[in-house]
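Page 47, continued from p. 46.
Same chain as before, 259 aa.
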Amino acid sequence: MKMHGLGNDFVVLDHRAGGAAVTPDLAMALADRHRGVGFDQLAVITDTGESDGHLTFWNADGSPSATCGNATRCIAQYLMAEKGVTHVTLSTANGNHLARDLGGIVSVNMGPPSLEWQQIPLAREMGTLELPLPGTPTATSMGNPHCTFFVEDAEAVDLATEGPRFEHDPLFPQRTNVQFASLIGPDRLRMRVWERGTGITLASGSSSCATAVAAARRGITGRAVEIVLDGGTLQIDWNDQGVWMTGPTAHVFDGVWHG
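Result:
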């Protein structure tokens, strides 16, 4: 299946009844927008018997990822429609995630953020609120590493240059997702994202969660914020249950892979 959340697009393989093993080469072949299908992330659904579905994620460069927020929302909508229910629980390498149908939009609990240096992870011990990098970004893990810069104008940032520069900084042994965000209203942020292993994307769910957490920690916003991305808007609410992300989903088409 091809799906997207705010233009953040995915290929989803439903392997609950079995399927060929995904390899880095297969992920890269499917990701090729000229010779394959094209995606920001690949998601594979399997059945473990312990949740409504287990999700495994791959980036466009063939590297694995522990989580993908918008793909989780899209797959949750697919499974809720299939089962005729209004909520499902999906398991990932980052734990279990409850998702709910709110009548045309889907909300998923991405779990609590990790804020300690070794959880991100960073290369050495330090505080994560203001990293010793130009622009003093904030580090957060939502199951994958994030580095969030707060700038005067996110639109003015040369994302194609600055994104890979910080993705591959030695401070991040597992590389990092990179966000540039600016405050455009009370509890409203404009954010652009460079995703680890993929590049510039129209939206990113985990990046939106990380940006909201970082903004709240720095006193820029409260804990319930609106994130305006290139592809649309997500609502993020960091509360005692975890970080809830809410927004639209889209199922583009179904296909059959003859690998």
